[in-house]
Specification:
By secondary structure, the chain is α/β, with parallel strands linked by helices. The protein has a single domain, classed as 3-Layer(aba) Sandwich (Rossmann fold), CATH 3.40.50.1820. The two termini are 20 Å apart. Keywords: Hydrolase. This is Alpha/beta hydrolase.
Length: 308
């Protein structure tokens, strides 16, 4: 289902957006859209994302009978921030996000109809797969969209990780790793999507509610991202995972490392890998119709086979 811009910028009337408390009291903004009983998709966004950006995909799945749920990671979107500077995407380590995902998963499995599947974009893809390997969540199937299983670095992963590690320790680890990101800036759009209208939706949401906006990551986040993805790529549990996993990978992705995702897919027992070439950037579900439709078709076919 393709939505017009006006509807991509509107929370569905039947959906619920509310703030819930994690076990440690941290406020997490949640989205729930009850469906027709086919099952529940828990969708998790990437770094600095908000679930509003994916309402068009949610509508596609909802029209097929899926209930859709999501929450903003702590530290971004409408969830409580982790840094004194609310514009910096900071974390000391990824453990609280993994705990939040496990808690929210347990809550939704209890409250919402099965089968239950998880779809994770970018950082959400890493956290979903890490949670699977740790047996913290037990979905019928998992979809990783442009997953952050390695970071794209102009100097390579090893040197990029070393630089991030040193910079974290040379000053305030919560300081921004680079200058503020600017939605609407043409260079940033090219990193994310070739569809100018869908890209403009993000800026609309941030203008509508500036508190949702998040800027660049901290040096601590960058250090953790290099280190955590490296550990995952070496984890022997990859070869033992018995959950069907679909990986959608953009070969020209300049934010995450497509080669790392392919290597992880090769180690998984039940992996399906779909590769996207020219014309596909990082946000495959917000790309131009030809790319986005292919991505949704791949997800639909995979879930029809593994989560009927």
């Amino acid at each position: 289902m393709m939505l017009e811009p006006m509807n991509r910028r509107l929370i569905p009337a039947e959906a619920r957006v509310a703030t819930a408390r994690a076990a440690d009291g941290w406020p997490l903004r949640r989205f729930e859209w009850p469906g027709g009983g086919r099952g529940t998709i828990l969708f998790q966004t990437g770094r600095a994302d908000v679930f509003e950006k994916y309402l068009e995909s949610f509508a596609h799945w909802h029209a097929q009978g899926w209930s859709v749920a999501a929450f903003d990671w702590r530290g971004q979107g409408g969830s409580g921030r982790l840094c004194a500077d609310a514009q910096v995407g900071h974390c000391d380590d990824f453990a609280p996000w993994l705990t939040d995902l496990a808690e929210q998963w347990c809550d939704w499995v209890t409250a919402m109809p099965g089968p239950h599947v998880i779809v994770g974009h970018s950082m959400g893809g890493y956290l979903a797969l890490r949670s699977l390997l740790d047996d913290a969540i037990q979905p019928r199937a998992a979809v990783l969209v442009a997953p952050m299983l390695g970071l794209a670095s102009p100097v390579g992963a090893w040197l990029g990780g070393r630089v991030a590690h040193l910079m974290r320790r040379r000053g305030d680890p919560a300081r921004a790793a680079w200058k503020s990101e600017r939605p609407g800036f043409a260079a940033r759009q090219r990193l994310l999507t070739g569809d100018a209208q869908r890209y403009a939706d993000e800026a609309w949401w941030y203008e509508h509610d500036p508190t949702l906006r998040l800027g660049p990551p901290s040096w601590a986040w960058l250090d953790e991202a290099f280190a955590a993805t490296a550990r995952l790529r070496q984890d022997p549990a990859l070869a033992k995972l018995d959950v069907p996993v679909l990986l959608l990978v953009a070969e020209g992705d300049r934010l995450v490392d497509a080669r790392a995702a392919r290597r992880v897919a090769a180690r998984l027992r039940r992996a399906t890998l779909v590769r996207f070439g020219d014309g596909a950037a990082h946000e495959l579900l917000r790309e131009r119709d030809a790319v986005r439709d292919r991505a949704l078709d791949a997800i639909d076919s995979f879930l029809a086979e593994h989560a009927a």
